[in-house]
Specification:
Layout (H helix, E strand, L loop, with lengths): L18 E5 L7 H6 L4 E6 L18 E4 L4 H10 L2 E6 L5 H10 L15 H10 L7 E4 L2 H11 L4 E5 L9 E3 L2 H19 L4 E5 L4 E10 L9 E12 L5 E6 L5 H17 L4 E10 L3 E8 L8 H8 L3 H7 L17 E7 L5 E3 L1 H8 L4 E4 L8 E2 L10 E7 L2 H16 L3 E2 L4
Parallel strand pairs: 1-2, 1-4, 2-3
Antiparallel strand pairs: 5-8, 6-7, 6-8, 9-10, 9-12, 10-11, 11-14, 12-13, 14-18, 15-17, 15-19, 16-18
Length: 427
Amino acid sequence: MSVSSVLVRPGRPRGLPAAVAIVDPCPSADYARALIRRDTLAIAVTTPAGPAAAGPAADTAGYAHTVVHCGGLSRTSRRLRALGVRAVLAGSARGIILAERLAAELHLPADPATVLRRCDRGEQARVLAQAQISVPCTWRTAELSAALAWWRISTLPAVLLLPAAVGVPAVPVVCRSSGEITAAWRPMRRTAHLHSGSRHLIVRHHLPGRRYTVHSLTRPAPAPGTEPVHTVTDVWAHAHTAAGILARVDLLPRHGMLARALSLYTLRVLQALGMRCGPARCHLLYEPERGPLLLSAAAAAETSPADPALRAATGIDRLGGALDTVLPPQADRPVHASACGHVVRVRLNAGRGGALDPERLAALAALPTVVHLSDTLTPGAPVRQTTCSRSAVGEVVLSHARAQAVERDYQHIRRLEAGGLYTGGSR
């Protein structure tokens, strides 16, 4: 259970507008524009890029000021206080730990002593198991010998090897023997360290079942002795191909039985992980015999190309809602997705290399429910074979008031793929 705290606004010099610090901002989460719409200063907090740094650099375009954190929390917090910062949010999964530490320095709702619960898969599994909340069998370690010992004791038929830190761009490896764990260990640990600074990996029971993403918002405890208020905003269902490659992601009706079951489980998870304030996203697996199981959680907003369609269909503003948890909320903004409006994110997966056929791509773009195509989808663009969910050709977002219209266009897209959307061979 989390320990409640009162939201305290740090003082700011007279004459300065309110400001929000975004730690490790990323291009996909444009907090700068969202804050400008609220007449609030956007302050980017970044860290120096060392020789071992990997992944995309923090995106500070549009931010009024950039504060580089060089290791001294007191120094950085003084600079933020001088700029009138009254709230701190993580701009990406990489920024979660530093965001909580800075929030604590500014006397904002935070608990840096337990921050791993909100950004580390292994710690999340341990805490939820102690709280008697169902999770997959998981072991967190930085040592190969410990992982192999756990594998032998567990007698599991197959395990997943992946970084403990959430947000590391690594493809999980399915292992069915000690040799496979050993072969995947060093590359996986190297990737984890480069992107998160942590060498810890997890070995987790590989379970079948459909996957889901649940987005939520947490508002600070309104008074001493009370708990933070958690709200699930929207739930998405993932569908994969037989090869395990992501094919589509569907917005679930909020009042459906499945969405309600996933939401109730997520509220228990957020409470157990000690969410104090801000946005979060949980990736879940649903196992028929056990129900929902947490795969990972991150105390940061996860944006997608479908966000404008989500806003148009339901009124949900992903980043605006996140800011409402740390600033006075804007009027007339819905807290959760309405029951109307169907949104589907369609992943384009090529069975072999080639190029995008201009005529078929134009036919795809002209479908009635298409509201967005990713920038990679241009006529004649080269196409590589899709080997995993991270190597998709691109993404198309469909949205309509009627589910039948969305499904009809989805099937049309798959026919275009089979008919030669990727010049040089059909799927």
